[in-house]
Amino acid sequence: MYNYPLRIRLAPLLLVALLVTLANPSIASEPAINELTAIDVLLLPDPTMIELAKAANARLRASYPQGFALDATHHPHITLLQRYVRTNDLDAVYTEVERVLNREQPAGWELEATGYYYLNFDNMGLAGIVIHPTPQLLRLQQAIIEVVEPYTEPDGTAAAYVTTPEHPGINEPTLKYVNTFIPERSGKNFNPHVTVGVGSLDFVQKMKAAPFDKFKFKVAGAAVFHLGDDGTAQKQLWAWKVHTKQPAP
After folding, report:
1. Domain spans, the chain
2. Is 130 exposed, middle or buried (0-12, 13-18, 19+ CB in 10 A)?
3. Among residues 120, 145, 149, 168, which one has the fewest Cβ atoms lying within 10 Å of its Cβ?
4. Mean predicted confidence (pLDDT) in 52-80
5. Once rounded to an integer, what is the mean pLDDT over residues 158-164?
6. CA distances to 30, 145, 200 from 118, in Å
7. Quick check: 230 and 126 in contact, CB under 8 A?
8. Contact status, residue 110 vs residue 217, Cβ threshold 8 Å
9. C-alpha closest to that of 117 among 50, 45, 194, 61
10. Peptide bond preceding 183: is omega within 30 degrees of 0, i.e. cis?
């Protein structure tokens, strides 16, 4: 038997692998199984909440102009769940979330805003309008958590978020917030709210301490968004087609 060099003996195997890849281009282009996307499964509020959230945002930006505006890339919303999910499994996530929403039918639920709150994010105050956590909301959150869980992974990085060349980074509090959403923001710790912007800690503390006129509003819809920095809902990935259950004949 001829003792050919190793590189010559491996050449036919490499050729076969190349031909298989060329015949199946999806093998070369398919993303890695563990590529992650940071998502927000959320409820969309009605115009009553949106108008008041934008008014609060304007107050914050008057005090701190560098803060974000509530606009097409920063949608007012009520977070049910933030998680890192496998990008390849996004379609399965949408299917499971839709199944829960079709069963629970949150569109039209009346909710009550009760005051302001804030989180310390990088020594700045991330402020929001607090919503009373009704049994319906708690049940819906738990159902969403359960169906999304099989598709989640821990320890996402900035690559899992919406970024831009001007703002390529994601701050550490955002990364930690999503990674620890369960259990720190779920179940008995669930704090439903609509984030309204960023301000100095002193300013948001005064907002929280000031008298607040409670108001009621309704759920207008639901969606899955791709997250940006500060947990903002930056890009809609999927939207629930709102429909009502037909009455039994």
Report:
1. 34-239
2. middle
3. 168
4. 95
5. 93
6. 41, 24, 10
7. yes
8. yes
9. 194
10. yes
> Which tokens go with 153?
């992974």
Q: Under a CB-based contact definition with an 8 Å cutoff, are residues 245 and 144 in contact?
A: no
Judged by phi (left if over 0) then psi (alpha if -120 to 50, else beta), residue 86 lies in: beta
Q: Which residues contact 104 (CB under 8 A, 6 or more apart)?
A: 136, 139, 140, 143
Contacts of residue 54, defined as CB under 8 A and 6 or more positions apart, other chains included, come to 70, 76
| Lowest-confidence pick of 18-22, 39-43, 237-241 | 18-22
What HEC string does 190-236 produce?
Answer: CCCEEEEEEECHHHHHHHHHCCCCCEEEEEEEEEEEEECHHHCEEEE
Spatial distance between the Cα atoms of 26 and 107, rounded to a whole number of angstroms? 39
**pLDDT computed for residue 245 by the predictor:** 56
Greatest CA span in the chain, whole angstroms?
A: 92
Average pLDDT, the chain: 87
Query: Where do we find the tokens 């805003």?
Result: 113
Residues making up the chain, counted from first to last: 249
SS3 call for 176: helix
Read off the pLDDT of residues 70-108 as tens digits, 9 standing for 90 and up: 998 899 999 999 999 999 999 999 999 999 999 999 999
Cα gap 52→132, rounded to integer Å:
16
Pick the CATH number of 34-239 from 3.90.1140.10, 2.40.37.10, 3.30.2010.10, 3.40.1190.20: 3.90.1140.10
Cβ atoms of 225 and 75 closer than 8 Å: yes
